[in-house]
Amino acid sequence: MNGNRFGRLFQVTTFGESHGEAMGCTVSGCPAGLELSEDDIQGDLDRRKPGQSMITTSRGEPDAVSIKSGIQDGYTTGTPIGMVIQNKDARSGKYEPFITAPRPSHGDFTYSAKFGTRNWGGGGRSSARETVNWVAAGAIAKKLLAREGIELKAHVNQIGDVEAPAVSFEEMLEHSEENDVRCAHPETAEEMQDRIAEYQEEGDSIGGSIYFEAQGVPVGLGAPRFDSLSARLGQAMMAVPATTAFEFGLGTEAAEWTGKDRNDDWEFDEEGDPVPVENDHGGIQGGISSGEPIYGEVTLHAPTSIPKTQQTADWETGELTEEQVIGRHDPVLPPRGVPVVEAMLALTLVDFMLLSGRLNPDRVDGQPGEYDTEYHPSNPNNQ
Amino acid sequence: MNGNRFGRLFQVTTFGESHGEAMGCTVSGCPAGLELSEDDIQGDLDRRKPGQSMITTSRGEPDAVSIKSGIQDGYTTGTPIGMVIQNKDARSGKYEPFITAPRPSHGDFTYSAKFGTRNWGGGGRSSARETVNWVAAGAIAKKLLAREGIELKAHVNQIGDVEAPAVSFEEMLEHSEENDVRCAHPETAEEMQDRIAEYQEEGDSIGGSIYFEAQGVPVGLGAPRFDSLSARLGQAMMAVPATTAFEFGLGTEAAEWTGKDRNDDWEFDEEGDPVPVENDHGGIQGGISSGEPIYGEVTLHAPTSIPKTQQTADWETGELTEEQVIGRHDPVLPPRGVPVVEAMLALTLVDFMLLSGRLNPDRVDGQPGEYDTEYHPSNPNNQ
Amino acid sequence: MNGNRFGRLFQVTTFGESHGEAMGCTVSGCPAGLELSEDDIQGDLDRRKPGQSMITTSRGEPDAVSIKSGIQDGYTTGTPIGMVIQNKDARSGKYEPFITAPRPSHGDFTYSAKFGTRNWGGGGRSSARETVNWVAAGAIAKKLLAREGIELKAHVNQIGDVEAPAVSFEEMLEHSEENDVRCAHPETAEEMQDRIAEYQEEGDSIGGSIYFEAQGVPVGLGAPRFDSLSARLGQAMMAVPATTAFEFGLGTEAAEWTGKDRNDDWEFDEEGDPVPVENDHGGIQGGISSGEPIYGEVTLHAPTSIPKTQQTADWETGELTEEQVIGRHDPVLPPRGVPVVEAMLALTLVDFMLLSGRLNPDRVDGQPGEYDTEYHPSNPNNQ
Amino acid sequence: MNGNRFGRLFQVTTFGESHGEAMGCTVSGCPAGLELSEDDIQGDLDRRKPGQSMITTSRGEPDAVSIKSGIQDGYTTGTPIGMVIQNKDARSGKYEPFITAPRPSHGDFTYSAKFGTRNWGGGGRSSARETVNWVAAGAIAKKLLAREGIELKAHVNQIGDVEAPAVSFEEMLEHSEENDVRCAHPETAEEMQDRIAEYQEEGDSIGGSIYFEAQGVPVGLGAPRFDSLSARLGQAMMAVPATTAFEFGLGTEAAEWTGKDRNDDWEFDEEGDPVPVENDHGGIQGGISSGEPIYGEVTLHAPTSIPKTQQTADWETGELTEEQVIGRHDPVLPPRGVPVVEAMLALTLVDFMLLSGRLNPDRVDGQPGEYDTEYHPSNPNNQ
């Protein structure tokens, strides 16, 4: 089993290794009738791609997505959407020393021990490069969610010991893409950037975290118990490379809160519906969305590939060796992780929108059984 | 939900439409350590491809497969195998009349009614062209099965009213690929070819059936009740385009057999193990393989695309129209269906080999935990 | 993997062996708001239960279902419906001779070889008794389908060489439950009964087949390619104990039909929608329901448990022995198989109704987000 | 979809509501040949059950499990294991006020809004009572893991602001069950108990956290990317009622660690195999187990049911009301959560042991194809 699939109704299936010929992603279960082109996807890919700033790897990848199927005249048809992204700038040579001498805290040893072999160039299948597929699929999910009034955003709220103060969703929308760190609090962003530079100079790397939020999520998403919204978000976010913690709502702080303080009383909203006075519950109650914003946080450990000298054990020679991972690597993961976290959030939510019948699985508009041709501008009969 | 996935541990995910840019297939769950190149796959693709004889469509498709991932130095690595097959010879123009006037007994109307739209060129996603993906995946499955001593083969045993006599597995291996019809009984093959020519001249098409057999299947495959070997073969074979019946063992004839006649007494084999005296049960007992050959039959209806004039209802104009489906089409499906049936048989069996622990899911040889580099001839350390 | 689960959204999970303490079935994914009690289920269980006539086993099982969860005040709540059916009349003693001497063409040997052991009493997990769970789950599915205007029915159309003429859906509804054979053609039913008696007297058993039909199925159900409606029906029906063939539409006869004859021209119905002139396609086109009735046939081989002496091989003593299976067994399977086939048809259809968004997965009426209490007659606030 | 299933090969399916007739759980995919009786399960159930101490609810439930299937002569048979646990002490009356006036931060509102109704007695399906099923299934998983040398344990490491110092695995085994709080550090346990008493007196409740660890996990478990070991643990643990955070390895602290500090150098162990010098990575590298202990932490918020007065909005009367949740409730969740966390850890690990071929899916010993009868002490032939 490869673990290359995500989603029950909105299904993503991926392939590709860091230094292979191409990355690829098949999205199944996207309803028909969604206007979609490569441009809708490219924006998020550009936010994730390497080489975009001084604090990302210098590997030069255009990450241009090519849609191979599932579209007719600019609209989805309900059939699988195949996407391929060519790898252009793979330089495997410098990974040869690590073939039998695993890099510390990478997947080198575990992959080799599991499979007896591995794609060793650039970390192969274990590389964060794989998330290019997730972001491509997530962009489609986002577009579907936007139609339903669901907006989501992430930003970097911690790098090392530099923490950003709480920001509003509007601030996230406005500021998080203004700086290379993707922190929605401009002053903190500068501080973060300085701190990253310090570690970079030392040949080291540093951890951090990403805050995410979704607005407009209707009440009723989630399939408790094992597939509660929090459980599935847990899986989605813990799959993000280098993640060591997932929190929603109060997260780890909840350990110190009393029931009275954390519980959110009910009042009525303008339409006379019950609505929580506060949102300490993080938008999920009993494993199901409450209609309040869903928010949480993901911790990413420091990149394991660092120029500093480390010790490894070469299983072929039987000798301990000193190694430096000189490749082109990010000194910190959260900035490029922001679109990845957004993608996983979007994929989780859109799957539950389908699972709860909020989105029709066959088509985004019209009624089942209608066989219109409105999505066919090229249909000569329509002209 | 797209229905583009097959298998629980050996997982196939496909995309592509008849006249789209490319067909594609991701195989997940293939263990590491299997020697594999495009050549291993191309042979079966060539047996399925159009334009190979007078009784297949003249569409010119090289059907050259390109493996994008999952291989290192000629061996599988246990990671997803992405494959892409370009479409080269799509001519959609002549399908325009059918956009709103569905061809009789095709998927034109049902796809449009389900999704409100469809890829109309060449039948789009409903085209038998999609099976190119299945055959590519099936070729990998066959190679894995061959390592375990499992061989399988199919041949055409009926075209219209021309039925082949029973043939042995050896005859199937020897003769089925000698003629364009893929019937392992040479005289019958000639008769079938004549019959096909007659229908072709009349602008009509004809049905037929495919017999399949697997040898060397170990006892113990199958997960009764809902995932019994027969149930999963049922799903696999009924997914083959144009299939209207699936039978195994005595099939429909079993209705007329008594228990005493059909039951297979037990005797001992040379090693002293119980073994059935006959194989009227078709290699499956209680939903689990018995160790005897698994055999059965699949009926394929006549191709629905025929030059003869047919009546359709144009939902745009509201008028009944006469139409001729003038595309390039097969007059009969079983000959090109043979590698497709073999592929589905192989995919079903390899999945159960993994599910029953007969094949290690991580690697085809070595022990879990061994991190050898034997599959890396290009590893400079190995030279 | 046990193969004890069926369905993607309407999910059935079963447990139980023929001579175990109880049979059980958990239905997940049934929407809330369906009025449901044990009475809704008991009717079909009674049609399946042993001891109901001279041509069924005399084992005395009341097969009384007890619902353990998922109901509030007589309506489903959207949470899992747990059901348990006690086994009352198990007499394992006479199965002892078969522990190491497998009965011909049963699952005795395959289960023991797969697992190294087995529940040997009454055939254990391989017994047709397991279908009591399917029928219980199917009864819920039928009730959901009926709300949507979908009706389905099966009857016995062949026993040995006695075949019933084609009957209408109305005749099936009217006559199939009038006689012990469950054949909707009264004269044929008598003939079948005579034939069964003959085999019974000889200590033998006989095969047969069941015809099924569903009316009112909307266009658009099915997820081609691997989860086409025909593929999933294939799995569902081939899982029915003793099944050796599944056919839909023309079935095996399609091999001899030309394209022109089999193709169904299109005309307009009264509402001006395209509709096929005939239904030779069996209600499924391109793997998706066409709106026409879905019909097909399932062949069941003769019961393997027969009084006639058979030879087996005792793997413990290493000796060939003669055995008679003297238990209480049916001389023919289709009569009690009728509710089982209906159940599998219902389970397949209801799953696709959910997968295509025709049925809301959370609730059968009302809108998502409404938190009414109308299903709570016992709610004191409502009185 | 109900979300009542967990696991891909070792599959758990549950039913039951807090005040329903019974809870139930079907375990599918447990290999044959495991010695198993109700006693093996009851121990963990007793650790989870209510009424065991002053800091748990006083509801009186014996939680006696009854195995209904899947066992022959004291050994598993590879077929589904059905288990039922009767509810004995449900008193729904005091929940009537909450039918239309949702309790703060419970699942009352979200369930009603999703399904339009709910089982309101005792919280129904959203009650932590449901975890009785998980613990029953987890006990079987633990027994399988123990055979493979995998041991696991959890203990309470934080209640409110009282944190336990780090303890060894051996200390966890020795001390965690000695006190009512289930904290393996005896002095801290006393402090925790005092703190709980304080909140209890105030009519309030308090949060806390659980630390877990697994020893003896072989290298190679996990299916990156989406089904990495960390991702699936994330899902498993976030499904635990009241969980707001999941961490493994350094958890949220990783944000402040540099790469050099967090990376674990490699050395050789006594057998000459590469082994990490430290275990800051938490036993998972690249999503796959490294052979080092797996450890992490789960945060549980304070119980939402508290005697203190809270405000709610009655959607029927349209009035804001004050309510007190006077039922029998725990003032803190981690103590009874310990066996639940252990169960989810065990279920996740055993599933991957099967998925990676470390455990044979059909049987725990012997070879596939062997049809011995050694598990049948009651077999008269064996005596």
3D structure, described in words:
- 4 copies of one chain form a homotetramer.
- By secondary structure, chain A is α+β, with helices and mostly antiparallel strands.
- Chain A has 8 helices and 18 strands.
- Chain A has a 5-stranded antiparallel β-sheet with strand order 1-2-3-7-4, with helices on one face. In chain A, strands 9-8-10-16-11 form a 5-stranded antiparallel β-sheet. In chain A, strands 5-6 form a two-stranded antiparallel sheet.
- In chain A, strand 8 (151-159) and strand 9 (162-163) form a beta hairpin.
- The radius of gyration of chain A is 22 Å and the shape is globular.
- Chains in contact: A-B, A-C, A-D, B-C, B-D, C-D.
Topology:
Four copies of one chain form a homotetramer.
Chain A: E1 5-6, E2 11-15, E3 22-28, H1 38-48, E4 65-67, E5 71-72, E6 75-76, E7 81-86, H2 108-115, H3 131-147, E8 151-159, E9 162-163, H4 169-175, H5 186-201, E10 208-215, H6 229-238, E11 243-248, H7 259-262, E12 266-268, E13 274-276, E14 284-285, E15 288-289, E16 294-300, E17 310-314, E18 319-323, H8 334-355
Helix pairs in contact in A: 1-3, 1-8, 3-8, 6-8
